[in-house]
Amino acid sequence: MDEVRTTDLTLTRSIPAAAHEVFDAWLDTNNPGGLWFGVAKLIINPVPNGLFYHAVEAQGREWAHYGRFIVIERPKRIQHTWVSPATRGLESIVTLGFEAQGAGTLVTLHHAGIPDDPMGLQHRDGWGFCLQGLHDRFARR
Questions:
Q1: Is 86 exposed, middle or buried (0-12, 13-18, 19+ CB in 10 A)?
Q2: Closest CA to 137 of 114, 99, 105, 92
Q3: What is the distance between the alpha carbons of residues 42 and 29, in angstroms, rounded to a whole number?
Q4: HSE of 40 in the Cβ direction (CA atoms, 13 Å)?
Q5: φ, ψ for residue 139 (rounded to 5)?
Q6: Digit-coded pLDDT (tens) for 116-138
Q7: Domain 6-36+74-139, what architecture?
Q8: Where would I find the beta strands (DSSP E) of the chain?
Q9: β-pairing verdict for 51-58 and 41-44
Q10: Is the dihedral of CA 123, 124, 127, 128 positive or negative?
Q11: Which residues lie below 8 Å from residue 58, measured CB to CB, with a gap of 6+?
Q12: Which terminal CB of the chain, N or C, has fewer other CB atoms within 10 Å?
């Protein structure tokens, strides 16, 4: 089997809310615009070694995503593994940092170990969509 060349992505977004609010919103399954909101299927246990599974319906099919939480350090950091069709079954690592920035929060999302191919690089758009949804949730209040 050929070895898959991997790469890392880093995205940042300023969110107009306190770090603890943004942290909690990221894990809130009822948060419109959040990672877990509106998915076709969801199982989530956001504690160290807790598992998650969610399925997103897009392009006429169901896309399964699953992993294990590694670090839950409120309100500073969340880290979990990430496996999806776009990672070609490889286990990658997603790390979110929440840094107070005045009255807001700078969120840094680092996704390590994704395939360095068009499918793997689509994670940039997916994570950008999630971060924009998080921003919009707080900008509306």
A1: buried
A2: 105
A3: 9
A4: 10
A5: -70, -25
A6: 999 999 999 999 999 999 999 99
A7: 2-Layer Sandwich (3.30)
A8: 6-15, 41-44, 51-58, 61-73, 77-82, 92-101, 104-115
A9: antiparallel
A10: negative
A11: none
A12: N
Closest among 59, 61, 81 to 71, alpha carbons compared = 81
Residue 114 pLDDT class (50, 70, 90 cuts): very high
Output the CA angle 67-70-56, nearest 5 degrees: 25
Q: Which two tokens stand for residue 115?
A: 């395939």
Two structure tokens written together for 13: 């977004």
Neighbour count for residue 140 (Cβ, 10 Å): 9
